[in-house]
Amino acid sequence: MAIRLGINPLTWTNDDMPELGAETPLETCLAEGKQAGFEGFELGNKFPRVASQLGPILQRHGLALVSGWYGSRLLERDVDAEMAEAEPHIALLTALGCTVMVHAEVARAIHGARATPLSQRPVLSDADWDLLAPRIEKFGRRLKARGLHLAYHHHMGTVIESQADVDRLMATTGPDVGLLLDTGHLTFAGGDPVAAAERHAARVVHVHCKDIRPAVMRDVKARDLPFLAAVLEGVFTVPGDGCVDYPAVLKPLAAAGYAGWLVVEAEQDPAKAHPLTYARMGHDNLARFARSAFG
């Protein structure tokens, strides 16, 4: 099986709500992630951002760096300015052997705004698309020259959230722009991750495996809560603990020859969802789904 299983530290500690898991040291996250069976971690807010510091820490735990989130503002600045802003992040990822960069456009985004309901998320005009898509494509081309494949992360509360947004991004950019398929975000946005996997399998370069609790999703949508409030309510969980059909999602990716990471990224309140328990559950369920799909 060519794929590898990784995890995001959001299971233990939250980037957008640092008070969640604030008391949990990085060493605990890494040790428990390894104990749960994962081969690598994505970056989080407790990780050193210098390769000479982070590399030995990961090596001590027998873990790889999978990738890390980068939020661009390409609606507000050109690609040269964005590359300059991203340079420390690019240098860290390349120094530690990553092959993809998790990327989302965060200009106008509301996912971190604790009082703004998701119904007020930004929507791109045709003129915005005409500006943004070529810049993302050029950014991806520049990253490719540095050895990283741009993995575009559609995300709740951002300008590229819905299945229609994802389809349009894929249609208006070329293969230098890879897709990060996030099963939880797409389901929450009203899309179908199975259909997206079938339609865009050849462009998928990274996968975030978060599941959805459907009753919670219906409730938070009915109350029109902000994104972070929905997280606190427990809308996300680990693979196999919600409604996402992972065998059906993974099958077209396997058929297309996907050979990257499958990353458990299921932000929850660690006081309600015991991190090691959910990390083990996520790993074991995802490993079972992956064996079935990839052989």
Overview of the structural elements:
The mean pLDDT is 97. The relative contact order is 0.16. 44% of the residues lie in helices and 15% in strands. Strands 3-2-1-11-8-7-6-5-4 form a nine-stranded parallel sheet. The protein has a two-stranded antiparallel sheet with strand order 9-10. It has a single domain (4-294), classed as TIM Barrel (Alpha-Beta Barrel). The N and C termini lie close together (6 Å). It is an alpha/beta fold and 295 residues long. InterPro entries: IolE/MocC, IolE/XylAMocC-like, Xyl_isomerase-like_sf, Xyl_isomerase-like_TIM-brl. It comes from Falsiroseomonas bella. This is Myo-inosose-2 dehydratase. Residues 32-274 form the Xylose isomerase-like TIM barrel domain. Pfam families: AP_endonuc_2.
Task: Please summarize what this structure is.
This protein has 295 residues and is of the alpha/beta class. It is built from 11 helices and 11 strands.
Indicate the topology.
Elements: E1 4-7, H1 26-36, E2 40-41, H2 51-61, E3 64-65, E4 69-72, H3 79-95, E5 100-105, H4 126-145, E6 149-153, H5 163-172, E7 177-182, H6 183-188, H7 193-200, E8 204-209, E9 211-212, H8 214-222, H9 227-233, E10 236-237, H10 246-255, E11 261-264, H11 275-294
Parallel strand pairs: 1-2, 1-11, 2-3, 4-5, 5-6, 6-7, 7-8, 8-11
Antiparallel strand pairs: 9-10
Helix pairs in contact: 1-11, 3-4, 7-10, 10-11
